[in-house]
Amino acid sequence: MNPLVLVFAAPLLGSLVLAVMGHKPHGRNVNVAFSFGTLLAALFLTIKIVAEGPLFAFNSQFFIDSLNIFLVTLTAFIGFTTSVFSRPYMRIEEDRGKMTHSRMRLYFSMYQLFSFCMLLALTTNNMGILWVAMEAATLTTVLLVSVYRTPASLEAAWKYFILCGVGIAQALMGTILLYMASQKVIAPGLNPLLWTNLNASKSILNPTIMSLAFVFLLVGYGTKVGLAPLHNWLPDAHAEGPTPISAVLSGLLLNVALYAVIRCKILTDGALNNNFAGNLMIGFGLLSVLVGAFSLLRQRDIKRMFSYSSIEHMGIMTFAFGMGGPIANFAGLLHMTVHALSKSAVFFAVGHAAQKAKSQMMDDIRGLIKVSPTVGWGLMMGTLAILGMPPFGIFASEFLILTSAMHQLPWSAPILLLGLAVAFGAIFSRVQPMVFGETNVKPLPHSPALLPVFLHLGLALMLGLYIPNYLNQWFLQAVAIIGG
Amino acid sequence: MANPTLIDLVLWVISGWLVIGFLGILTLHKFTFVARVLFPLGGVGGLILALLALRSLNSGVDENRTLPIGLPQLIFHLRLDALSSFFLLVLGVVIFGVSIFSAGYFRNSAGTAPGLLALEFHFFIASMALVLISDDAYVFMVAWESMAMSSYFLVTANHKMPKIRAAGFLYLLVAHIGAIALLLSFGVLQANSGDYTFSNMRIQSLSPFWASVAFVLAVFGFGAKAGILPLHIWLPEAHPAAPSPVSALMSGIMLKIAVYGMLRVSFDLLHIHLWWWGVLLLVLGLGTALFGVIFAAVQSDMKRLLAYSSIENIGLLFSAMGLALLFYSYGMNTIAALALTACLYHVAAHAVFKSLLFLVTGSVLHATGERNLGRLGGLIRFMPWVAWLAFIGVLASSGLPPFSGFVSEWLLLQSFLFTPSLPQPILNMFIPVATASIALTAALAGYAMVKFFGVVFLGQPREEKLNHAQDAGLFEKIGMVWLAVVTLLLGLLPNLTIDLMEPVMRVLVGQGLAGESKSHGWWLLTPISIERASYSPVYFLIGIATAIAFTFILVRILYHARLRRSAPWAGGHAWTNSRMQDTAEGYGQPIRQVFEPFFSMKRQLPKPDDLEPKYEVIVSDKFWEGLYMPVVRLTEFLSALVGRLQRGRISIYLLYSFITLIFLLLLVPGVKI
Amino acid sequence: MTELSIQLINLFASILLLLAFAMLAQRRVINLVHIYAMQGLTVVSATSIVAFVTHQEHLYYSAVMTLALKVFLIPLVLHRLIKRLDIRWDVETLINIPSMMLVGIVLVIFSFNLSLPISKLSTSVTPGTLGIALACVLLSFMMMITRSKALPQVIGFLSMENALVFAATSATYGMPMVVELGIALDVLVGVFILGVFMFQIREQFESLDISHLENLKEE
Amino acid sequence: MILRQIFLQSIVSGASLLLAPLLMGWVSQLRAWLQNRKGPGILQPYRALHKLFNKDSVMADTASPLFRFAPYLVFGCMVLASAIVPTFSTELPLAKAADAIALVGIFALARIFISLAAMDIGTAFGTLGARREMFVGFLAEPALLMIFFTSSLIAHSTSLITIVHSLTGSSFAIYPSLVFAAFAFILIFLAENARVPVDNPSTHLELTMIHEALILEYSGRHLALLEWAASLKLFAYSSVGIALFLPWGINEAGSDISFLYAIPLFIFKLFSIGILLALIETFSAKMRIFRVPEFLATAFLLAVIGMLTYILLGA
Which of A153, B134, D21, D294 is placed for a possible disulfide with D45 were both Cys, Cβ 3.0 to 4.6 Å? Predict the structure, then answer.
């Protein structure tokens, strides 16, 4: 049996089952089980790909190569760890009366469906299905963000829906243009929307249509990536939803959207033979870095702050991919991986911290190291990882990005320097008094799930010091696919 | 491995430190074990490292090693050459003293658990050693930032005080910005070859413009770590905040690591050398030195005083380096070697005596609980060990013969006297001024040090509780005695030390001084020629000692007057008390007056009718108001501006998307509107 | 393809544009729904013609689906929403209607120009339709920007989607069936979610005026 | 050879030890005459030293060992200083051990010891004196160094002997840079030896005193040593002045015959310096302590200008 079927079946089935019994006490465990199943299926798929090379499935509608396989694994992995984190977290939310039974069912069911949508978006070969999956991912997360039904969460979800909906509509326009361009040139009998077919004949696609298409696609998927100035939904959605959702939004959804942009960039580059797409991405990237960094300074809500940090990091990645070249692309992929791991770890720690303090306001969170040393150190280490302190992996990718930027685009170096410095100052000055200092808050009733935090940080640490050879090979092959 | 090479052994020491650190985590709260076993063990590691480095310097080792970690295309490249060996030697020597001291210093009650402290401490020293043997940009940066991070945690060991947290934050922020600048500098140096090893950087030929960019970025990055003006701002905050052994390590070694990096980049990695680089370093260094020492003289917190004194010394190091670079850029390699010798000598000397002095403040702090000079005094009577050891450090720090600080100062001034031979007339004009400021700095350093020693240890105790101060414990004494002995040796045996630097000079400028410097015997230092200049601390010491001994004996033999003790005479005033001594502020008053434009001062003067008259002067750094606050305000302004992007209105957000779309469509090639 | 069908498609395109302008000018919410339904009908007609001319079977399915969804189901849902929520008027647009029309005209010229190079290269028989579809997208976009109530905003969103479907059928003779189905499903689910939301928003804020949704912002 | 060197060195050192108080006495006698007083006689310093050595020493009960040790060290420093400065002969084996920079270092070492000793007792006067002494020192010391450097630039050496050699060298030359240096030196000379207008050695007025405040707590043999050290300092400074600015006629290594005229000539120069000093002290008034920085800064700047002049004119 094709392992891809399992990869899809596990979350879909989980979604259905949990829609029925998600409110039961062991619904949490079932959620973990299904996520674990997805992870196993993804690993199985990965092993198959490693052994046999790229894979087509279902009449070429699905295509798995080195560029998406590591994202599939990453998505399944973070999906799993987040479900582990959800166990005690949602239990406390339920105890505190923020979640009713029906909301629990909705939450778990949508959580699985969301995983499914992302895996679908990652593995599909059809640019149309990619669009559909992205839109579906938006819809599921809209429900997840609004799950508390508070005025703030409704407002956040509404904005999220409208802004991303409109954005995604532009991506549909782009897809139509793409289709139009390929329809004219592609050999009859081949599906003109399949990425592999497009990629094979990308050099003969009409450059004008392709550049128009790329603009629409970039605005569309870029909205989901959270590129400034299309980013306005992102802090609201991160801050008002449940923390596990913030973790997967930052850790996964943004990556998937960026993945879509990269796929489009590959085609555009092939058609245009200039760096039009790259330049646009460089511009968006730098703007996002600056906007993200300067916005960080004024935050008082901890989740909001880290969501701005995600904007900044997505900016760095977009910049890296825009710049292109083997080193920058490698660094961009590495950054995607490590940022996902570190940022979700930070959100896990933040979740526990905010639950302890019963507030997301940073002024209310103090002395974590005293209440719970593990949460405190988890937040501190996660923050340092996010800020690019070695030996965490983000440092490795930032190292490569900055050093190659210094030669390829020297003028951008001061901007990046400014952005990183401001971000560092802003985040660290807030996190330090939260972790250190005095407090009189009592410990939580349920022991926090810190395994995911340290697992993620451990992996992020490892990737800074040692990248396993097979992962390196994937990255290298993916770099070859991205080219540029 | 049957016959491990030196670099392997160095790596074993580093890993040993890491293991000690992890043992610390395992024994988080076992105070006695951590203090009595782990810290001395780490100290022994330092000693072993020093011996290895000595061996390496003597045998002229140049060993490479790669470790299969790091980035896949860039595994860790390590290299042990003469330059790293020299710094490793300094590192090992200082760590031995500081670790042994720490064994007796840390108390169980401090904010951070002892085991965690051990982890941070050993991680810190291990990362410093790793910086020194790194041979590619990645491992260098990893070790560099680990060093910053671990020292940050050490600085904030007592994190319950908001002031300490603020100091730690400032420190890490400056360190991080500096690190990004370094990263960019390495980015230039690798010249887009994608190969980040130092050996690749050496063979890249950059245009003068790009080489200058790399150099200036390196100055910024390393200067931020070293505390060069105007990036010194963190230093006087972080040093007082940190526990004393940590201040000792930071001041003694970490600042030198920045000097090492600067030497590595400017002499080793860059293949061309422009004369104005030297001038830049020289000007920065001189400014820093003068600034540091003037501020040191007016401080009223003993650790701040020492921190500013470290700024001064770093300034001297940078000016020596700048001078060397200047000579080197004109191909005057012998004289460049002279200036570099001065620089390296001062690295060693300052590392040892400044750590010693910081350890002294630790002992004083433990015995009295006071850091404020205004509440100390007379401790020589209660803590004679600490006081006399401090005295050695103070004399070395003041640059007095025959102590270690004098040798480096002497060498530096000697090299300045060669500057008229430079082919640039404008530089010749500049040199007298530079020399004058070096001389002024040296003299002011003496002023500051007299203040430090005199106010802390001499006179009468300014507080009642000082009468119960206890002398340092055994471990503390051993640590300090070790450093004091090394200080004395460095002062008395300059030729032996310069011999050790010989291979370093060969690496950096192609030739050394050793051939000439001991041509008249090991005891006489003649760096260029005997006619030019000579200095012999041993003779010097013998001369003074003979004179003193002669005088003493003669006075004893010829005269038989007795010695009586009585209350101080004090010009006949009957009612003197300890409050009538000069305060630290009073002692700094002449400096405040002469150098008034340097400071921004707030005075609180007592009025005639005050019932509790209070006099207070707060001297602060003009750089805060003049440079940092505007930057902070600008950043806040910009962030407010960016914050206006997000006003909560969905229509506006949609408008952003709309405008972005239209704008990008206009950018599409081939679209004409 | 016959001359007649080309003219018909061009006619429907113009009607679509006209309706887009009408939507921009219309203040009564109920009329917006009617216009939306008419847009749907236009799209259905255009799709059927293309299907008829190109003999693509899946376009017929697409037309039927659009008819069911956009002419009947969604307008019906919207009607009921309006009744239940009791909203008739969108009191004030953020910009007055004449200036909005002016901006609209500029947008139309812009999109025509934009699609000009593509139309020249196009082998399609109806080169102008892409420009019109693009203009409709932008006009709907503008409508979303300027409306201050939640429901008109949603209608703007839906009409943008209509324009996109029109672009797909007229410029490319329809996307593959899987994609069309997916798009339709997404739209349907989206409308339901929005409907649920609107009830909840009214419950929480006691109004559907989106100016109440401005609490999450930077100080 | 070695014996000869040790012999010569002892002669020179012994001579300076014995001559130093004489110079002191000569200056005060001259001052007395210039001020129409009778004066204590030129040998008064010897008598004073003898008296002090024979007296009991009274020491504050709070004094630390540092306090007792300081007079010996200061005295030792001054002996060493006068041993390495060429007086009437350049054949000084000890001079190799310390050059001009080290000489400045020796003075600084002595200064720091005496200042610390003054702080040790913890009286108001002691700390005041220490502060003022260091204050004068931090300006005078670099100025002195600059003066040495001006001549070092000419001689391409910091060794005092080489400097004297090259200044007395084959051909007579006028060095304008040395003129500046000489003026600077006179100012420093006054300041460093606690002379009017910077300090007045014959007063104990607390508003003005510097040197006296430092040694206020000393008595008996310790005071004697300090006084002797002060006269040695005056002697050393005078010798420095002679060596740098009036070096002609000094005995060069290898020509023993020149001792015949070198020694009398040196004594003559010394006495002339004494006259100059007495004149200056008589015709100027003591400055306020706040004016001292200006005075010393002038000296410092003059010395720097001296160096600049050398670089500009090459002479």
Answer: D21
